[in-house]
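Forum: Protein Structure Q&A
Topic: Joint prediction for protein chains with partners

I've read a bunch of threads here and the consensus seems to be that you should model interacting components together rather than docking separate models afterwards. I'd like to see that in practice. Below is the full input, 808 residues plus whatever partners are listed. Could one of the regulars post the assembled result?
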Amino acid sequence: MRSFLSERAKNTERSAIREILKYTQEPEVISFAGGLPKPETFPREGLAESAASQIRDNYEKSLQYGTTEGIKEFRQEMSSWLSEFGLELELKNIIATNSSQQAIDLVSKTFLDPGDRIFCGLPTYLGAVQAFSTFQAEKVGIPLEKDGMNLEILEKKIKDSKSSGRRAKFIYVIPDFQNPTGVTLSKKKRKKILDIAEEHDLLIIEDTPYFGVRFSKGFKKPIGTYDDNGRVITIASLSKILSSGMRLAVVGGPSELLANLVTMKQSTDLCTSTTTQWIAADWLKNNNLSDHLKELRKYYRENRDAMIEEMNRSFPKDEGISWTEPNGGLFIWVTLPEGMDSESVFEKGLENNVAFVPGHHFYVNGGGQNTMRLSYSLLNPEKIREGINRLGKVLEKELSPISQ
Amino acid sequence: MRSFLSERAKNTERSAIREILKYTQEPEVISFAGGLPKPETFPREGLAESAASQIRDNYEKSLQYGTTEGIKEFRQEMSSWLSEFGLELELKNIIATNSSQQAIDLVSKTFLDPGDRIFCGLPTYLGAVQAFSTFQAEKVGIPLEKDGMNLEILEKKIKDSKSSGRRAKFIYVIPDFQNPTGVTLSKKKRKKILDIAEEHDLLIIEDTPYFGVRFSKGFKKPIGTYDDNGRVITIASLSKILSSGMRLAVVGGPSELLANLVTMKQSTDLCTSTTTQWIAADWLKNNNLSDHLKELRKYYRENRDAMIEEMNRSFPKDEGISWTEPNGGLFIWVTLPEGMDSESVFEKGLENNVAFVPGHHFYVNGGGQNTMRLSYSLLNPEKIREGINRLGKVLEKELSPISQ
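Posted by a regular:
Agreed with the consensus. Here's the joint model:
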């Protein structure tokens, strides 16, 4: 059987996290491992109405094939939402895709030859890494700081890459409440990273699935808003704010780059579901997205607050454990003292019915043994406190031999 | 910009047919060019009900991410439909994909390295050819006869390929009412093609999007039903019978092969829309698909009959023009006398407000200049007769210099 596989298929492994999730689904386990949004935060009544009316009355379009670019009405609604944040996208600058993941896959398919270099966060989103690996790219990880990638290291790595003769294609960045760390790229670094891309002739793939899930009033403009030279592709998704099941995202950027993505999408799936595009377009037209997002953010913010409060209360103090305090998104990132192994904490956690994802899985070039990703998305504050309390006890025990 | 493109992107061209369709959309043109199904044949009332109830009451699943394999309930309904035709698929032998086109793309992604050989009909479906080209395969066309591929030529080409040292991976076949010709593979050849695959250690990709759209009572069993050795992957779609906009298909086959497709699908789009899968599963559970298909077939059969009747009446006689009489699907294939150029007929047709697709577009290795694809899917019998009548007059004029 293996003799039939392409080199790229031989290169691709199943997501380790999906395997981990299998162990964490026992009912008595309080799991912070998954990263799924809470379906109760989606506007099901409105979506049900939009679905019924679009399928019944607009069947000539909503049940038919559509153009590969996506339907105009959906792209217009998305463009008008994104324009509130400074991203001005005409119709030729925005296409619909079947999820952010497909957008990342299309970008990889369109730009990556085997051996090409890409630059990404260390740690970063595993699904993106998988897509880059499928197209046999070489991934160069750039350590994250509190305000995003370390840009000195980024520049150094780009220069190293040039002198090695490898073709460097793009920088992949999750600017807002990054998965897995919750870190947000500062405004200063957003501008600086674009300068670097400019200087070294790279594209920037800006992936912002959590943009709608932010807790404070301020927001940082997408990198795409500063792009005067057609280097930035911005991916925005509805999967965390309207529905994950509908699989809808958009890609914004220079029309010449998008034209290439559209050509590749033709043979990939002809078009994104017109049924779900029309449902979303109708919902966005007839409902107030801002009001909806206020409710949704309230839910996730309360969960984040509960998690951080309980970490402050239950985690061992003065032992060098630190964590991020994200302003949005679904994840908190915990760093344990150097030398401590989160795999061992994971095993002890399971014995005590609490689960998370050991952080090293998110490191493309190794490392991160002392880190953990915790999601606060699915549980209520009470359960979150109970789980963090359990985890605190596990950490206490794990630390004691070290502090002896 | 071009310097960023991957070799595969440089290799990929936009569908020529989509470009043709632009010219044929003037309201006064009677167009047989497109291949879209008729949305009125889809069960919009039932789908609207299923959509509303699934989104409102089953939102925890229908708006949430799902497994990459697809949701169990949808795969079970599809499996139970396919079992009526002898294809026995357990859950591990069937996965959901985001359309047949995605299935073809995943097969290509999983099995094809640059330079690998695949064998396909001459002519064949252009979307498949595009996917094979994207993954830089070498396409070997096998001429079609009235009962499907010429299998002597297939064997010869496989042997040639072996002696050339190229790796041959699979035979791509559309067994039922093939696009573009309407030809059906005979039962004898279905068994024989499997023997050939067996002898030369190839896979068979069996793509049957029109299987539900058949006019006579009999049907030929899918090649997959004869497969004892895990070589056949069968792709079945809902795009022609329930909705094209929902983008739903399934892939049936040996579990080891499917496991590889699932691994590749993970990084492609994580999962097929659970929203549309639940809508389809609910509709299939609560409605009688056979009754629905009876109505749908009646519509297409009447159109086919009108087209063939009018061809008999209006096309020049005794001039060597022939056409297929398909037992299902959406297309009739016309062969003009050798030396006649259907591109010239196309241009004259447009001047006379009638359009079709010149057949050479469907030939992967050149040829087919004297062929045309006509779809009877979208127009009513009256319009079909009028369009064929116009085309008959164009053919008459085009033939006169030849017969002089």
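Residues 2-42+291-403 of chain B form a domain with the Aspartate Aminotransferase, domain 1 fold (CATH 3.90.1150.10).
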